[in-house]
Amino acid sequence: xxxxxxxxxxxxxxxxxxxxxxxxxxxxxxxxxxxxxxxxxxxxxxxxxxxxxxxxxxxxxxxxxxxxxxxxxxxxxxxxxxxxxxxxxxxxxxxxxxxxxxxxxxxxxxxxxxxxxxxxxxxxxxxxxxxxxxxxxxxxxxxxxxxxxxxxxxxxxxxxxxxxxxxxxxxxxxxxxxxxxxxxxxxxxxxxxxxxxxxxxxxxxxxxxxxxxxxxxxxxxxxxxxxxxxxxxxxxxxxxxxxxxxxxxxxxxxxxxxxxxxxxxxxxxxxxxxxxxxxxxxxxxxxxxxxxxxxxxxxxxxxxxxxxxxxxxxxxxxxxxxxxxxxxxxxxxxxxxxxxxxxxxxxxxxxxxxxxxxxxxxxxxxxxxxxxxxxxxxxxxxxxxxxxxxxxxxxxxxxxxxxxxxxxxxxxxxxxxxxxxxxxxxxxxxxxxxxxxxxxxxxxxxxxxxxxxxxxxxxxxxxxxxxxxxxxxxxxxxxxxxxxxxxxxxxxxxxxxxxxxxxxxxxxxxxxxxxxxxxxxxxxxxxxxxxxxxxxxxxxxxxxxxxxxxxxxxxxxxxxxxxxxxxxxxxxxxxxxxxxxxxxxxxxxxxxxxxxxxxxxxxxxxxxxx
Length: 610
Ligand code: ADP
Ligand code: MG
Ligand code: ZN
Known about the structure:
Blueprint: H1 3-12, H2 21-29, E1 34-37, H3 44-54, E2 58-62, H4 66-78, E3 83-86, H5 92-103, E4 109-112, H6 120-126, E5 131-136, H7 155-162, E6 168-173, H8 178-188, E7 194-197, E8 205-210, H9 215-224, E9 230-234, H10 238-250, E10 255-258, H11 264-275, E11 281-284, E12 297-302, H12 309-316, E13 326-331, H13 335-345, H14 355-377, H15 382-389, H16 402-405, E14 408-412, H17 414-431, H18 437-444, H19 450-454, H20 471-483, E15 487-489, E16 496-498, H21 502-508, E17 513-517, H22 534-551, H23 555-558, H24 561-570, H25 575-578, H26 586-606
Parallel strand pairs: 1-6, 1-7, 2-4, 2-5, 3-4, 5-6, 8-13, 9-11, 9-12, 10-11, 12-13
Antiparallel strand pairs: 14-17, 15-16
Helix pairs in contact: 1-3, 2-3, 13-14, 17-18, 22-24, 22-26
Adenosine-5'-diphosphate (ADP) binds next to α3.
């Protein structure tokens, strides 16, 4: 067996590599730069952690979030890998201690926040040791085209320039479009990197978009179908988190909440309640989730549309990390667009941007939003839409998403399309500018709304033409026309505008049809059947919880759910058998083996076996 496989077994307890890992590891070991683009949960960390254990010298890992670093360092230490982190959560004394140990050669990996790279103290320390590898995690943060641009990531470039010997540099990210990938490689100055882009597809995730009249009712019914299952409900804003969480609690659902406005201690407690399964539903803003490796999340529901496909896929991707079937359901309402736009135009500042940078970020944000809106409105395969976005080829229909399984009927709407398009045209002829969908619908339905009357829209010929069509039905037709490319919404002012294609309908009688959902398919909660006996898994979880509490770490740091399920399926008796469990390395076997073997033995006896 070669060294990297040995390390994989010994420290991490896994039998084999996943797609892409081995090639990326080999490249770095051979001194070549590497660039890994793999989906959330794909196993990017191992790609630099294993070289770190084999290369001569220290590996620096650059990571954007304090919680993420803490988590990974804790997990590494439990696996027997000496590691530390340097960020603003440490006191000057603690940082000095890390420097001392670093100089004494006590760590294989040091995680560091980008803001710290250029400090005098750190620079003087790294000049005195050999840096073998600089691994940039969440590398999309360096690109202004990415959703999480962090100017501090640009310091990595200056930092590398300050080193006498350039180390191997590797970069990792989950959500990078082609453009962002190019940007990352260029800015970081990767030298002929081995680039591995594993598929973006997550076949075990089932995607669906719903447009409920009443989001709370829709959410409650989804949760009622999924009792005792663990899931995340993402909301657009802090206030929404509070009201939704309260609403769920009022109905006796074990919900907890997370957002940037809560105290650090409440966030910690709530996050742990969720991770320890004391509370099954986490209601949160997008502040929650990065670096959370909770494997038994079986659904991610978006209470509102997020701001970009990258954000959506990252958040939804937190479901089904263990490979089990999981649902990703988005509850969409047209009003979500306004909220998202507001949030993009008024970002909560994390870092100071120049006026120019800010303008670019907002502009990019609005363009990404448009793609996100497209996802909510499309009647095509949702998985296909996602893969298109990330530039991956795919089958026309996955057969397993909300749109593929919905029962659509074709309906001819040529006449209605003519009325809608001509109304859009007349409004802009009359006003000299265009109105959003709401104004168009009010005009078509003959609304007595003050604004409509004061604009004189009751005098144009299409006023009241569609009096008998319901708001919802009309909205559906407008969406469909937009989908089919007859109309488009201007990104910044939100006005509905005709496209060139509209002319064919207006002047040449081109027929138009739309897909209508016959009935909205009620998604059944997926059956989750872990391979081991339920009773044993419960017992092992209880033991894990006790040990985790003693050691003051989250349960998954002791063992992941996937590891416990494998353990329950194998029911090891000897230490040797225990080591074959996926996720059990020698360090953890030494530390926890006896306790878990005893628990399994007890369980077998209770079942009447010896
Ligand atoms: P990413 O950073 O790509 O989102 P992580 O590095 O956090 O993913 O890995 C996700 C999970 O997969 C972790 O629990 C990790 O231990 C596990 N994992 C990684 N590589 C393997 C492997 N080769 N076999 C089994 N599990 C793995
Ligand atoms: Mg990661
Ligand atoms: Zn599909």
